[in-house]
Amino acid sequence: MVDPALSLAGIEKRYGDTLAVAGLDLDVAEGEFVTLLGPSGCGKTTTLAVVAGFFAPSKGDVRIKGRSVLGLPPFRRDIGVVFQDYALFAHMTAAQNVAFGLMMRRVSKPEIERRVAEALDLVKLSGLGGRRPHELSGGQRQRVALARALVIRPAILLLDEPLSNLDLKLREEMRLEIAELQRRLGITTLFVTHDQGEALVMSDRVAVMNAGRIEQLGRPVDIYERPSSRFVAEFIGRMNLFSARIAAETAGWHVRLADGRVLSLPVPAAMADGAAVHVAVRPEKARLSRHPAPAGWLVFRGTVERILYLGATSEIRLQLENGGRATAEAANGEEIAGFTPGTVVWFTAPPEACRVLPA
Amino acid sequence: MRQDERVSGAWIALRIVVAVVYLFMFGPILITAAVSFNASNRSLFPPQGFSLRWWGRALSPDWLDPLLFSLELGAAASVLATLLALPLAFALVRHEFRGRNALIALTLGPLLLPALVTGVGILQLFQYVGLRDYIGLPALVAGHVVICLPFAVRTTAISLQGMPPNLENAAASLGAPPWRTQLHVILPLVKNGIVAGAVFAFIHSFTDVNLSLFLVRPGEIPINVKILGFLEFGFAPTLAAVSVITILIPLLVVVAVQRMTGLGDFLYAERGHG
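Structure tokens for the assembled complex are given below, as produced in the milestone run.
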């Protein structure tokens, strides 16, 4: 078996009484783009810093291509890092910034010149090599930082929220650009972000982190379509949650809603009879109707409370008859034409749009 | 229209204030300079006649020796204070440790104490511990390092604080061992802070009189102490000439360094690290 390009085993990082990282395992394959996604304080940046060697983990091992690097200082780890604040060297030109890592590796002068030009070209900064960081825009600084990390052809590229300081338009452009560059170069990448959009668009796999642990690891589509926990379901996109209990019936496993109705839904393994669960439905998968839905569907009656016009779609917020609330998102068209606050509607979802999550 | 009028009104007021400030700053200096060219034996203003004889006296060994001594003392104090300030500023800015606040108080304390008191303290200390023979240049250097240190630490610390926190990590990730990071990344970025600190230290030392007063001995007397001593005999035009020299030296140092490194940028708009 081939060793993974990067392997984290049982990583723990303790600050005094708090565990910033609480036992984290992760393998990243050669050329793979893996994202650590989570709210601030979930331990994602700490994990990145442990990989980079900026500090040692309290427990666990970091292996690059099968070799433990715990004993190596950052400058021997063969990594490239792009920081949130870019950390460019203000007294050097863009080209000198990019050349820095090559100088440290004692690459010959002509070779440095060639590779710096190549790297600047790669990030579309040809001709701006002579500028100082303060003479560059935020997006251009970002590109210099990226070129500086790439030019040394590191074994692992680490990106620490590199897009957070850019404005929205530029951020969306850079997402694609970085992802394309990463695929073209085939460089193994660990990306840290709190932005689910970035994670979904850019990654081969996403590790959703919470309280120092990985809650779920999977392809973007797995994470979004089949979240394994309430945390993941609510952190990525939006989610309607309805309380229910597992009900063992003769014909297999079912879910009993709070009002007593029983639905036949796929139930995750290892759930006991009577266990409290949530039935989760994404707003855009729910359908609003003026008529009750076919049998076997999840159905709640409610009244429209508010309609938020979002352009391509509208978000419709409902007050349900059972006292709860629900949100649906629908294309602006016939389906929801004529809905106004106060309209009585049925919130419905086919079984395949429902997911049962541990409460 | 009204807006414009108000703006120009404000500008006129500002100009008047600036003019008054300049008048207060440069008036006495200009008067002193004028007095030094008196043909009369007395320090008259406006000067009576024109003569360079007071300048001849000011440039005699009587005055040149203490002047050179002050320059040596200032240079020594400045270099030593700067060398001490560099590691101190690093420790204070970059690290949390026990006794950090005590160290801050210790390095900045001399700013708050009257130099006179520090001078008396150093004099007594040297006497009590049997270093009486070192009163003179060694004691003066020690004292001046103490009173100059806060300036050097402050400016170096400010330039360190202005640095993005990840710079060292960035350099390390690019393969730079710590000493190369210091040499190629940190030092160039704090250079202006260090130079500014050295300049302030030199000027502070050169213009000091309070501390020096207690630590001199014959032949090892800074120019300002010498001037003070001479004042007992009244303000002769010689003193006016000497005073002009002692004003010009720090001024020339600041102008020279400003030309080379942009000291003013450092002082008023330290935004160079963005």
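DSSP finds eight helices and 20 strands in chain A. The first strand of chain A starts at residue 6 and ends at 15. Further analysis is deferred to the final report.
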